[in-house]
Structure formats: structure tokens, C-alpha cells
Design a protein that fits this description.
Chain B: InterPro entries: Acyl_CoA_acyltransferase, FEMABX, PG_Glycine_Bridge_Synth. Chain B: It comes from Aeromicrobium chenweiae. The complex is a heterodimer. In chain A, 25% of the residues lie in helices and 27% in strands. Chain A is of the alpha/beta class. In chain A, the strands form three sheets. Chain A has an eight-stranded parallel beta sheet with strand order 2-9-8-7-6-5-4-3. A six-stranded antiparallel beta barrel of chain A has the order 10-13-16-15-14-17. A two-stranded antiparallel ribbon of chain A has the order 11-12. Chain A is elongated and about 75 Å long. Chain A starts with a strand and ends with a strand. Chain B folds into two domains: 125 residues, Gcn5-related N-acetyltransferase (GNAT) (Aminopeptidase); 217 residues, Aminopeptidase (3-Layer(aba) Sandwich). Helices cover 36% and strands 26% of the residues of chain B. In chain B, helix 7 crosses helix 10. The chains are: A alpha/beta, B alpha+beta. At the A-B interface, helix 5 and helix 6 of A face helix 4 and strand 7 of B.
């Protein structure tokens, strides 16, 4: 079926990639969180089962009930447990992340026997225990079962995984010298080569990478996103259109295409590399952008096109200048999406 | 709602040496650098005993050493490993503000102190493992076995009150060491302490006994013999020895305060002196202060025997801590200091981190000048 804002997955190619990654990454814990990287958490949970994996990691406690239903193994929660959470799921298959000494004491009192990970505070400075707090953390564990130690490393240079090897090494050494009685180290954002090096340097540790993006979205060639053209109108220069009655800059075609804010269209994640130069370039581009138009993620006739007005909830209005061949109503156009912010009408495994 | 009465303002004033000593005797322990006798040892500094008064009651004390600025009647007021006040009770301003006022009246342009506050501890096993791990290069890299949040908060309070921590290099600042090694004795028997040592230490203690090494306490007259071995050690280990007169002055001052404040230990093998040390004790805290050993007859393990005797005597005297004093922060096996740490780690004790030494400038210009002058002197 077609007629919306959809993701097509070349199932064979995608699964071939998943298998390759899993086989090359012993101990892998797939991350199944948020919008399921655009693919949906249930699909990813099912794939994790198909891949024969024993543990998945979810982002929040809200995601746990669904994960427990969709997956038969253990479910690890990446967001650290807090005493004020009112939606914590206590289950033998749930592994809680602990990042504050007082929280450990509180969970030990509330749910003795619960399975936990201790997380170290890395240079991310997001969650985690200081290395000097580890003894105190162990001191209040009570009957909690420590399943491992976790570190979440920042992205390396250029925003890619890697470059954090020294920090990973340091934490591995800290874990071994600490009173924390576990030999399982969960890591994020290390390259395959770094994982191998870490295992070589730390033969006593069971290093388990938690991987999301490079597993599920590691072969973008297997994924294609398309949106259906729902309507097309010829417009003249100066003609006012849309909710905002904005005048068109020249003659052309107005396309109404499936995919709006509810699909994640027009939502822009903050860019990591928006330095002064990058911002200058954007300003200098001028053109329609200077006239208050924004570039859309829709590609028509080989070019990324401009929004005629801000995207609506379900559809977007795109301006196509005269001279370009407008697609027929009912046909599909390509869309460039950020998968972690996209919601599709359908995900089609083909 | 009830509210506690406002605490009375504390006042600081000069006290006599005997008042100071009485206060020290009422406490479990203070650093030996905070005893009135220490002012006599440090004869090149002017010493003053001061007390904190809550009304008529003395609630804190310190030994202040004044170091004169060349050509000016202004001083750096130094409170080594002090003052002895309620560091962890909160409201430090209540204690430190009257201190500043008093010392300023005495002509101080700045104050330097070493809060006797332990922030972290690392057990011997942890340090041993860390030395073996190439990634863990300093004690700060190693997860502490005990972390005192209240003590760590003192640093924040001091900073807020305008104090600045003196930078250290490898844990050694110009003043007293930040990292020390201590053997806890509280609630332990001789057997416990011995059992806590590593195999090498136990074997060496046994070996010394079997070889017939005898450890005895010396008199003032034996200081010369101690000094001969000490000078030999200084040459071997490349440090500048203090003159015999320094040790005689220390002996006279400390033993006058308490007969067993300072004890000289001599380890002999078949009449030959093979090791000699001094131990200082204030209440429940005993320090191994100076040590020396001969190059000859190292195999009879006089150093282990003499340490063991000091520990046993400290234990018998009711000490809760046997303090082997400073260590560097490094755990790098390539660093020459690591041998000293390994020797101390073998006792099964723990490394402790103090809050370090802190400065409060009273006259900023003079303080800056003095700091620069001290840096040039090296």
C-alpha cells in the first residue's frame, strides 16, 4: 500500500547488515529506544529476538512494558533510576542503571534483589558516579544484584565514535581497581578497533558494547523514505496561498505532499557543527531563504525544494518553480529524514 | 517552631604554652607540628600559641609560626597541619574570621594553614593493584575506598571564604605533604597488624628476629650515632641532611613537653647499628618521623624490625594511628618514588589524602611579593 509518508526497508539487505554487525560485535546489546530509530521499537525488539540476542537496552521506564512484551530477554534501562519516578517497572527481566549513591540506597530499600548496573560519570558529565564514590556505592548495595558497570562516552573527533579510547581504558582500570564486584563493562561509542584493543588490554573484563545507530541505521542504502504527492496546483507570481496567505515569488507549481510536523518534517535538530563559518554560509545563500522560505527535505527532479509555507501537521506545501517538471498526483518523491526524529505512516519490509 | 540560639562569637587570643598543652591533652590528638614544642624546634620562626574562646572556654588552638619578610616587620603566619578547630561542624567563617583578625593585628600579611582534614583513603590492596595497572598513574586516578563528602565540602567553604589551595606537584607542595600513608591501629592487636602486612614484610620481620637484630630505645647521647647513619643515608639517597644540633634541639624540646613525645630507636646486629629512627607521638597519633639505615648488613632487615617495634610501641601506648608520613601521588612504576610507596603499602595500611595547604592573603601586594620570593628561593 502507498499513499503517505513511508519508510521502505530492503529487508534482506538490512538483515544482512544486522547479522554482519552482530557477528562482528560479541556481547552486543542493541539499543531500542525513542522512536526506534524511525523503524519502531517493536520491529527492533523482534529483530533482536531473531538475532538471538539476550539483552536489549531501552531509553526510559515508559518504554519498558512494551519492551517486555515484545522481547523475551532482559531489558536494560539507560536512564538512571530515580526515587521520584512513578512509572518504574520492577521485573526480574529489568536491569536498572544507578548513578547516585543515595539512589542505590533507596532502590536497595525499595526493591531488594533488583538487578542493577552502576554507571560511571565520564567526560559526558551527564549521569554517573564519580570514581571516588564507587566504594560508597558498593557500601549501600544491600541485596541489589550488580550485573555490570556502564560508561557512556562522548562522540570522538568530528562527531564520530572513537577517540575515547583513553577514557575507556581509564574506566576499565578504575573498575578493576574498585570494590565493584563485576567484570562486565558496558560501553557506548567505541569503534570496533577500540573494542578489540580494550578487550586485549583488559582480558579479565567482559566488554559489552551498547549500539543503536550504527546497528539499525548502519546501512542507509537498505532504507528509503518516500512521500506521496497528494495535490498539485499551478500558481502565479504574487498569488497568495496557504494558512498564512504568503505571496509566491514567481510562477510555478504548488505541491501538497504527505509528511508534516507530525512526521517530524520541518523539525530541525540542533546542528553539532554550526560554527560561525557554517552560519555565515547559510546567511550568504540568500535566495528564497532570504525571502523567508526554508529548504524542505523533499527532493523533486533531483533537487531539494523550498517550503511554500511552514509544514502542516500531516502535509507540506512545496513550491516548484515553472520550468521544472512537476510529479503527478499519486506518485512518490524522496525525502531526506533524520531517522531519530521521523515518524512514518508505515514501515514496509520488502 | 523552635530556633537554636545564635552561636556566640568566637574570639582568638594568645595563650601560654601550658594552656596550649593542656588543651592538646584534652584532645585525642593533634599534629606534632601543632605542639608548643614545635615552635622551639623551628627556632628560625617566631612561634605563638593561640586559642579560640567561646566566652571563657577554650574550644580550639593552634601553633602559629611567623616567617619574617626580609627588611619589613611583616610576616607570613603559618599553621602547619593546623589549626585544631571543629573543621567538620560547619560555619567555618565563625572560626576563621577571628583568626584572620588576630593574625593581622600581629603583623601578618597572609595566612597559610594545612587543615588536618582527611578527604579520601585508599586501602593497601587497592594501591597495590593500581601500581600494577599501567593506566592508573596517580592516586587521584584510583577509586578511593573511603570518600568523606563532609571533608570535601570544607574545600568549597574555604574557597568561598577567599582561601586558595597551594598547588602541589606530585602531591608534594613546598609545605607538608598532601598524601600520607597510615597504618590504622584502632581496635587491632599486634597479631592483627602483623596479619595485615604483606608476606614480604612478615618474612623480613621474622628474618631480622632470626638474625638476632635487637631494637632498643636510645638516649640523647645516642643521637650522635643515629646522626652518623642518617648522614650515610642522606648521601646514598641524595638528600641534604639536617645537622646533629637540629635533632638535639628537637629532642630537648619534645621530651621536655612529654617524656615520651619523641623516642629514638636503634636497631643493632651483633653490636653494629644497622638502622635508626625517631617516633613522635601526640595522644593517639604516632608518627615515624626520621629514619636511617646502613648500606652494610641490609640483609638482616633492620628497617623492617625497627618499624615493627615502633608499631608495637605505638599500639601499646594506645595509639589509633601509626603514621608513616608523606608519599608522592605517583603510582608509576618507573618513578623512583614508587619504591617508597611500595615499602609503606607492604604494612597493609592506607594512603590518606588531606585537604592540602591553603593561603589567605591579608595584604595582597605583600603576599604576591612573598610568594614570588619563595618561588625564586625554590
Amino acid at each position: 500500500m502507498s499513499g503517505g509518508f513511508e519508510l521502505d526497508v530492503d529487508a534482506e539487505r538490512w538483515r544482512r547488515h544486522l547479522t554482519t554487525v552482530v557477528e562482528a560485535t560479541p556481547g552486543i546489546v542493541p539499543v531500542v529506544k525513542g522512536n526506534g530509530y524511525g523503524l519502531g521499537r517493536d520491529l527492533l525488539a523482534a529483530e533482536s529476538t531473531r538475532l538471538g540476542l539476550g539483552t536489549i537496552a531501552v531509553g526510559t521506564y515508559r518504554e519498558v512494558p512494551e519492551a517486555l512484551a515484545a522481547f523475551g530477554g532482559d531489558v536494560m534501562v539507560l536512564t538512571p533510576w530515580r526515587p521520584f519516578f512513578d512509572h518504574v517497572v520492577l521485573d526480574d527481566r529489568v536491569i536498572h542503571t544507578m548513578s547516585r549513591v543515595e539512589d542505590i540506597a533507596a532502590l536497595a530499600a525499595a526493591a531488594p534483589g533488583a538487578r542493577v548496573l552502576l554507571e560511571g560519570e565520564t567526560s559526558m558529565a551527564r549521569h554517573g558516579l564519580d570514581r571516588h564514590e564507587l566504594a560508597a556505592a558498593v557500601g549501600v548495595l544491600g541485596d541489589l544484584q550488580v550485573e555490570g558497570f556502564a560508561i557512556h562516552l562522548p562522540l570522538g573527533p568530528n562527531g564520530r565514535a572513537g577517540g575515547n579510547f583513553a577514557e575507556a581504558q581509564s574506566w576499565a582500570a578504575v573498575l578493576e581497581a574498585s570494590q565493584v564486584e563485576t567484570t562486565t563493562l558496558y560501553v557506548s561509542h567505541l569503534t570496533a578497533a577500540e573494542l578489540t584493543a580494550l578487550r586485549t588490554h583488559r582480558p579479565n573484563l567482559d566488554v559489552r558494547p551498547r549500539i543503536g545507530t550504527s546497528l539499525w541505521l548502519g546501512d542507509l542504502g537498505a532504507l528509503s523514505v518516500h512521500a506521496t504527492v497528494l495535490d498539485a496546483h499551478l500558481v502565479a507570481r504574487g498569488e497568495r496561498i496557504g494558512y498564512r496567505q504568503k505571496p509566491m515569488p514567481r510562477d510555478g507549481t504548488l505541491l501538497v505532499i504527505a509528511g508534516g510536523t507530525s512526521h517530524g518534517i520541518g523539525l530541525e535538530a540542533p546542528k553539532a557543527s554550526s560554527g560561525a563559518v557554517q552560519r555565515g554560509k547559510l546567511l550568504a545563500k540568500g535566495g528564497l531563504e532570504a525571502a523567508g522560505f526554508s529548504l524542505s527535505p523533499f527532493t523533486i527532479a533531483g533537487k531539494q525544494r523550498w517550503f511554500a509555507e511552514p509544514p502542516h501537521m500531516q502535509a507540506s506545501m512545496i513550491f516548484l518553480p515553472a520550468g521544472s517538471t512537476a510529479p503527478e498526483v499519486g506518485t512518490d518523491v524522496d525525502v531526506a529524514v533524520r531517522f531519530t526524529t521521523a515518524t512514518f505512516d508505515a514501515v514496509n519490509l520488502r | 517552631m523552635t530556633s537554636a540560639p545564635l552561636p556566640a562569637r568566637l574570639r582568638v587570643r594568645t595563650i601560654s604554652g601550658s594552656q596550649h598543652l593542656d588543651f592538646i591533652r584534652s584532645r585525642p590528638s593533634v599534629s606534632f607540628l601543632q605542639t608548643p614544642a614545635w615552635a622551639v624546634v623551628k627556632s628560625e620562626w617566631r612561634g605563638e600559641s593561640i586559642g579560640w574562646f567561646d566566652g571563657d572556654r577554650i574550644v580550639g588552638a593552634a601553633l602559629v609560626l611567623y616567617r619574617k619578610v626580609p627588611r619589613l616587620k611583616r610576616y607570613l603566619a603559618y599553621l602547619p597541619e593546623g589549626p585544631d578547630i571543629d573543621w567538620l561542624g560547619g560555619d567555618l567563617e565563625r572560626w576563621l574570621d577571628p583568626l584572620r583578625v588576630h593574625l593581622k593585628d600581629q603583623g601578618a600579611f597572609g595566612i597559610r594553614m594545612g587543615p588536618p582534614v582527611v578527604t579520601r583513603r585508599w586501602h593497601a590492596g587497592t594501591i597495590k593493584q593500581a601500581i600494577a595497572d599501567p593506566v592508573l598513574a596517580t592516586l587521584s586516578d584510583v577509586p578511593a575506598d573511603v570518600n568523606d563528602d563532609t571533608a570535601l565540602a570544607v574545600a568549597t567553604s574555604l574557597t568561598r571564604l577567599g582561601w586558595k589551595e597551594l598547588p602541589t606537584e606530585g602531591g608534594f607542595s613546598a609545605g607538608q605533604p598532601k598524601f600520607n600513608f597510615q597504618v590504622p591501629l584502632a581496635g587491632r592487636t599486634e597479631e592483627d597488624v602483623l596479619a595485615g602486612m604483606n608476606q614480604l614484610w612478615r618474612r623480613n620481620i621474622k628474618k631480622a628476629a632470626k638474625a638476632g637484630v635487637e631494637v632498643e630505645a636510645g638516649t640523647r647521647d645516642d643521637l650522635a650515632e643515629f646522626h652518623r647513619v642518617y648522614a650515610e643515608t642522606a648521601e646514598r639517597d641524595h638528600f641534604t641532611p639536617r645537622p646533629l644540633s637540629y635533632f638535639e634541639r628537637m629532642w630537648d624540646a619534645l621530651t621536655a613537653e612529654e617524656p615520651d613525645r619523641l623516642v629514638l630507636y636503634l636497631a643493632r646486629h651483633e653490636g653494629d647499628l644497622v638502622a635508626a629512627t625517631t617516633m613522635v607521638r601526640v595522644g593517639e597519633h604516632a608518627w615515624y618521623s626520621y629514619g636511617a639505615s646502613t648500606t652494610a648488613k641490609r640483609d638482616v632487615r633492620g628497617s623492617n624490625a625497627i618499624q615493627w617495634q615502633m608499631m608495637r610501641d605505638a599500639l601499646a601506648a594506645g595509639a589509633t594511628t601509626y603514621d608513616m608520613r608523606g608519599i608522592t601521588e605517583t603510582l608509576d612504576p618507573a618513578d623512583s618514588h614508587v619504591g617508597l610507596i611500595q615499602f609503606k603499602v607492604g604494612t597493609g595500611g592506607e594512603a590518606v589524602e588531606y585537604l592540602g595547604e591553603w593561603d589567605l592573603p591579608i595584604n595582597r601586594a605583600l603576599h604576591l611579593g612573598f610568594t614570588a620570593y619563595m618561588r625564586r628561593r625554590g
